[in-house]
Amino acid sequence: IRNIAVLTSGGDAPGMNACIRAVVRTGIYHGRNMFGVMQGYQGLIDNNINEMTARSVSNILHMGGTVLKTARCLAFKEDAGMEIAFKNLQDRHIDGLIVIGGDGTFTGAKRFGEKYGINVIGIPGTIDNDLYGSDFTLGYDTAVNTIIDAIDKIRDTADSHDRLFFIEVMGRDSGCLALRTAIASGAEAVLLPEKETSLKQLITKLKSGVTTKKSSSIVIVSEGNKYGGAYDIAKSVKRKFTHYDTKVTILGHLQRGGSPSGFDRILGSRLGYAAVNAIIKGESMQMVGLRGNEIKLTSLEEALHAHNYKLEDDLLEMTHVLSI
Ligand code: F6P
């Protein structure tokens, strides 16, 4: 493997820049030519590929977002799009591709690697933390801290006004962010995609808070839960439970931005470094991940196949107990 390209694809995640820096510098250290692809798979198709030096990645370690930009590219799902992408890589003699992203990114990488035999390594980068084979995905820790910071602020105003807040957090179809931030912010309840909590149970819980003299309450709503968005849920709850003045906050994309936490900077650096070492050794169709503080390889197939976050029932139960 002489020439290696790196791209970020799907939703951005804090720590991607630290990871890009590690990929580029590790490759250059080992005498490889390094290329950055702009806008994910779209840049492969558009031939938006630039050679990178150690200086191209100076002073980006601490920045949120991704300097390579990102996109969700539909054209790469088509054979014609993949063909063009491969030709553009071939023209530059690029024989290794490192992709940083989530499940959509890995699905594309796996098909591309299988079809054209190019060496592909995946790095788990998504705030959702929903890939099998890495205890943590890049960006998740920062997002948890960003969400907690926001909820703490809402808690101040909720308590001052004796209000009930429904706060919607991201996670697509994974409740990992919601459950962890519910614990860390002392939320009264959390609605998750993986576990059904009926609105009746939710109201019972909120009523018990009134009985035990809670002046305000916070409910975390994971975006993938089965009752819909936070506004819908707040409306349904209000029909049957009127004790509090009720407000809704959708945290939205602020959860994806911001300077990466120390943890994500270190994780991004470790995963980027490991990805290049793996691809140089000839590994392909693998994801580098952190498991129990060790970097391990997991096949893309497995990372995708078992991608659902397994909700820990004991943590949900704990959230319930600690918020009495
Ligand atoms: O996968 C990361 C994520 O932030 C999800 O939590 C969310 O559902 C989705 O991306 C939002 O995507 P977009 O930025 O394309 O609206």
Task: Please describe what this structure looks like.
43% of the residues lie in helices and 19% in strands. With 324 residues, it is α/β, with parallel strands linked by helices. Strands 3-2-1-4-5-10-11 form a 7-stranded mixed beta sheet, with helices on both faces. Strands 7-8-6-9 form a 4-stranded parallel beta sheet, sandwiched between helices. Helix 1 runs parallel beside helix 9 and helix 5 crosses helix 6 (176-185). The longest helix is centred in the middle third of the chain and has 22 residues, at 140-161. The chain is elongated. The mean pLDDT is 96. Bound molecules: 6-O-phosphono-beta-D-fructofuranose. 6-O-phosphono-beta-D-fructofuranose binds next to loops. Substrate binds at residues 126-128, 163, 170-172, 223, 247, 253-256.
- Distinct helical segment count: 11
Estimate the global geometry from the Cα principal axes. elongated
The hetero molecules present are: 6-O-phosphono-beta-D-fructofuranose
Query: Percentage of helical residues?
Result: 40-55%
Estimated share of beta-strand residues: 15-25%
SSE ordering:
EHEHEHEHEHEHEHEHEHEEHH
**Could you tell me the mean pLDDT?**
96
Q: Could you give the count of β-strands? A: 11
Q: What's the end-to-end separation, in Å?
A: 58 Å
**Strand line-up in the sheet with most strands:** 3-2-1-4-5-10-11
For the CA atoms, what is the radius of gyration? 22 Å
Biggest pleated-sheet summary: 7 strands, mixed
Low-confidence stretches: none
Class per helix and strand makeup = alpha/beta
